[in-house]
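Both lines are quoted verbatim for reference:

——
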Amino acid sequence: MSGYAELHVSSNFSFLRGSSHPEELVETAARLGHAAIAIADRNSLAGVVRAHIAAKAHGIKLIVGACLDLEDGTRLICLPTDRAAYARLSRMLSLGKRRAAKGECLLTRQDVIEYRDGQLFLLLPPERLPDDYAADLQFWAAALPAACHVAASMLYHGDDSRRLRALAECAAGAGLNLIATNDVHYHLPERRPLQDVLTCIREHCRIDEAGWRLDANAERYLKPPGEMVRLFRDWPEAIAETIRIADRCHFSLDELAYEYPDEIAPNDRPVQEELEEITFAGASERYPEGIPPPVLAQLRHELDLIARLDYAPYFLTVYDLVRFARSEGILCQGRGSAANSAVCYCLGVTSVDPSRTDLLFERFVSEARGEPPDIDVDFEHERREDVIQYIYRKYGRERAGLAATVISYRSRSALRDVGKAMGLSEDVVGLLSSQVWGRHGDAVSDERIREVGLDPADRRLTMAMNLTRQLMGFPRHLSQHVGGFVITRGRLDELVPIENAAMADRTVIEWDKDDLDALGMLKVDVLALGMLSCVRKAFALLERYYGLDYDLASVPAEDPKVYDMLSRGDSLGVFQVESRAQMAMLSRLRPRNFYDLVIEVAIVRPG
């Protein structure tokens, strides 16, 4: 045999159905000598980017796919062969997810048939073959001609030979070939106990009462190719078929070409020209008496770098959001290193005049670092939803979505879920949780277990603590990023599946910010800040009672009275300097200008 490729692998991004990280599975497959490995999580592509990065690091071919659980109980592995087929898979998953509540996916046989072009399918038979299974295979053979195989796995129930013969007869009757898989859920057999605990968490039961819901053995691990050849020695073509399938799957995530929208440049004008015109128009408003020569030089330097890095569409997208907010009377302000940019100041993204701070633009955008710009814009927390819905209206749900945040198990949450699954009492779980310090604290040590009056040598307690340590860092579910939007020129749902969020009228993609960075996809952070609502109301009061018309850029700078108050530590309710630590440092350093204040804040909050 020339080799073996494992094409049916579920990672922990199948959410409580797999007990190994994608990276662990890919690394193990490479070490064992697999020709390729397919990560096919349940109705999801959430873990494929991490698998892709690991595959490149370990020199093994990754096949991107998904396990489709249809509403009638049918299960198929879908493996796209090229970029167009991947786009269809992503759109099909988006369709199923948009029909259902958050975390669910509703797909039908007709959906599979509609999006079948360019896909290869592995039908996953039930453990007990029903009497009409041959007819079911004939349906799929007709619906998916030349693209359908029947997955065969050893179940170790004592009747594998008889079952595989019956499966082979059904497949042959429908003109389909068997293909060997191991239905992998973890990279090492030692993960079997964790797999059982995950099943208990998913099924809301204790390990003592789980019964038939648990796997009967620990064989769902990633086996060496030689072992798979031995197990399927009576069906050598099923092994050879894995290589043929792997050879037909050419798609790589490296092929995903991401482009920022550019329709905001009218009359087909180049986006760089549009950015420059808007920037200099904004500069004339910022500096009505003439643009200072140092600022003019800085603008030209920044625009030249933006042109070389082709970031003009990104800046124009952010400008469009800020323009909309201003037109609706919504206060907004760019945060972070965007304040270093004269272009951002002239676009109205930030109200901090860079000529006052003399900060380095390359801290924001650098050709040497090769990192995309990251502009975070704060909007009034009472009005941010208006901006979010504007994005959806302008670009459509198929071209814009919030980035995901992977909610992972930390010490307390892992301890709570494992403790319940292992049958520990609520009192014991509460005692153990009380010994975890901080949100990202380590698991409870034996010494602390003794301190609360428990025996760390107790077998059940020892197992619970070991399983807690294994579970920490596992993805629990996907949530929405605080405000990171991904907007595309083409269809976003052809890059990554889009699903409904728990909040009404919100849609979220399956990848988080680290996945987006790994694939070079930019996001715009549309954030909420309560203090901006306070400032807007303060401006309204000033105008109403004193006739003063201020905005963030025109507030008088370096007012001595402000620094007199700050030097006394009188900063209760003042954003960024209202903590006790800040108050104490203010009265010691006594800042007299904005730069002094920057230094003082940085001492208490480095970075």
User: Anything to note?
Assistant: The longest helix spans residues 83-99.
